[in-house]
Specification:
Number of domains: 3
Helix content: 25-40%
CATH class of the largest domain: Mainly Alpha
CATH topology of the largest domain: Neutral Protease, domain 2
Strand order of the largest sheet: 10-12-17-14-15-25-24-21-22
Radius of gyration: 26 Å
Number of helices: 13
Number of strands: 25
Structural class: alpha+beta
Shape: globular
Largest sheet: 9 strands, mixed
CATH architecture of the largest domain: Orthogonal Bundle
């Protein structure tokens, strides 16, 4: 195979990361790849350009095709592919993988062999890690085994080719030709399943983390790509990359190589969650990290891919729909997940007070630093604008750069009550107030009142584009004098006793008559019980929860979320059941 000397991290996946059928865009993708391979420029992630060529490469001018052929591309099939390596003269077999490698030339791996069995330690380590990944994904999580390539690699095992794939390249997984359509290893019917094979580098000299850690996160990421190809190889690129990065954390939570992708993501939260190219799609793993922690656990990601196999991605992008259906199976929605994540990203705390908006690793996110290009880069959420509100002086803030499934943040500095109004019902507005004591108040609606009082640490407005039918995401926020009352709607006054053994009493004060739902969730965001749902006039109320679920069965000891939610406001408290 033609050596691909690339200055990037490259994860090659499927034929239908639908980039564009437009010939000019395909040509632009080809020119970018040619420039990178010839070291005329550096692009860390070429995945969207490669995907565009894989799917639409036959539209390219003949001259461009000839150039790409010289770099190892093969245009003789329906899918533009890169051939397998045929010059690697050694192989090592495990129960499920065949690892191809060599001890000579530029592709040689370190020949250190501590146990004297003639197989290099590097290859044995890689083999152990891949079997570990296989066991977790297939046996423990229950994913379907990727389809077989028959005997194309010399056996019916999954083929991994280890060689010098260029400076900065972690690995890539490439789909085979032709498309299989239905994965023989599943009991379901797939539309767009592909077999695949994988290229890993022959050393990790100069890479961050240890050699073992690099092999671990690479194996977790790439093998999940192979699994994805067995479900729907034509699924949207953002969903493939975001969930593959999430899988790195699912396997090797302490390595945190994925933090690097959060830097550009948090710098531009206004971009679409499902942006199909660049580093943003990798950073969108934070969306699935939030879902994992609060809205159903790893099962939601698996359900998403199970839903993906039921639609034909060649006919459109159903990725958001697949996530939504998976979440609805647990009593949630894509809209809820998107808004909750947007709020969590401004709170950015692991503390109990953050409730359903906490991140377990928030401290690690804040402390993370990436050193590159002589700069120190950190994970820091970008703020669209800030306002120093003065009573009696109305103000406005506008935006024309918020995009679909994105979010923006406006810092509000105010000593007096302020009313925040948004000029459109098509977007969702939240306000988040943190007190000096570390508690949070979240409100939602098109007109919101904030009474800072003397105990306020900070205030933010959060705007989220969560409506699939909206095309215009421009908005205007107006700030006028508010009213002096911290609780203009309702508040949870107390929960007693907490921790509790058999039952807990919840006291609620309602100021504005309205419909309110009082619901108990577990730590994974699963609905346990609805204590009350209906209209409440102004006044004080008491509700009792006996520690049972909706089937009137006793629940186990643990921490639960007590939530009170109206159309305009939500409040939550952590309660602890101890038996």
């Amino acid at each position: 195979m033609q050596k691909l000397k690339v200055l990037l991290i490259l994860f090659i996946i499927s034929s239908s990361f639908i980039f564009s059928d437009n010939k000019s865009i395909v040509t632009q993708s080809a020119n970018t790849i040619i420039d990178v391979f010839e070291e005329k420029c550096t692009v860390r992630h070429l995945t969207p350009y490669m995907a565009d060529i894989a799917r639409n490469g036959h539209l390219l001018p003949e001259k461009t095709k000839i150039k790409l052929k010289s770099l190892g591309f093969d245009f003789s099939n329906e899918i533009v592919i890169i051939a397998r390596s045929t010059h690697l003269d050694l192989s090592y077999d495990t129960d499920h993988f065949r690892i191809h490698y060599t001890l000579t030339g530029n592709d040689a791996v370190d020949n250190t062999d501590s146990d004297g069995d003639t197989t290099p330690d590097y290859i044995e380590t890689m083999a152990e890690v891949f079997e570990e990944v296989y066991n977790h994904d297939i046996i423990e999580l229950g994913y379907t085994i990727p389809p077989s390539d028959g005997m194309e690699g010399g056996s019916n095992a999954y083929d991994i080719y280890v060689e010098d794939i260029g400076y900065g390249v972690y690995a890539w997984t490439y789909y085979g030709n032709p498309m299989i359509g239905d994965n023989e290893n599943s009991n379901e019917i797939e539309n767009n399943a592909y077999f695949s094979y994988m290229f890993l580098r022959n050393n990790y000299n100069g890479f961050p983390n240890t050699e073992l850690e690099n092999i671990q996160v690479t194996a977790a990421h790439e093998y999940f790509h192979a699994i994805q190809l067995g479900y729907d190889g034509d699924e949207a690129l953002w969903l493939m990359e975001a969930t593959a990065v999430w899988m790195e954390e699912e396997h090797y939570d302490d390595v945190n190589d994925c933090y690097q992708y959060m830097i550009p993501w948090f710098e531009k939260p206004n971009l679409p969650l499902n942006k199909p190219y660049g580093l943003h799609q990798y950073g969108s793993y934070i969306f699935f990290k939030y879902i994992d922690e609060h809205l159903g656990g790893s099962d939601i990601i698996k359900r998403t891919w199970e839903q993906s196999r039921l639609v034909d991605s060649n006919n459109g992008d159903y990725s958001i729909q697949s996530v939504d259906i998976a979440l609805k199976g647990k009593g949630h929605t894509f809209k809820k997940a998107l808004n909750n994540m947007a709020i969590a990203n401004i709170i950015f705390s692991p503390e109990n007070a953050a409730g359903q908006y906490a991140y377990e690793e928030a401290i690690g996110y804040k402390d993370y630093r990436q050193y590159s290009y002589n700069d120190t880069l950190s994970i820091q959420l970008s703020i669209h604008d800030s306002l120093n509100f003065i009573q009696g002086i109305p103000a406005n803030i506008e935006s024309n750069d918020l995009q679909q499934y994105g979010s923006q943040y406006i810092k509000i500095n105010a000593m007096d009550p302020v009313k925040v109004s948004m000029n459109t019902q098509d977007l969702t507005l939240h306000t988040v107030v943190k007190s000096n004591s570390g508690s949070y108040e979240v409100q939602s609606g098109s007109v919101l009142n904030i009474d800072p009082g003397s105990n306020t640490d900070w205030i933010y407005a959060v705007i989220v584009t969560d409506n699939n039918n909206v095309q215009d995401f421009n908005y205007n926020l107006s700030f006028t004098d508010g009213v002096r009352d911290s609780y203009t709607d309702f508040t949870i006054l107390s929960q007693f006793p907490n921790p509790f053994n058999n039952s807990i009493t919840i006291k609620l004060k309602v100021i504005t008559p309205q419909n309110i739902d009082i619901i108990i969730y577990d730590m994974l965001g699963r609905k346990i019980d609805t204590i009350f749902s209906g209209y409440l006039s102004d006044g004080s109320y008491e509700f009792l929860w006996n520690g049972v679920n909706t089937n009137n069965e006793k629940v186990s000891s643990g921490v639960y979320y007590l939530t009170a939610v109206s159309d305009n406001r939500q409040e939550w408290k952590k309660i602890t059941l101890v038996k």
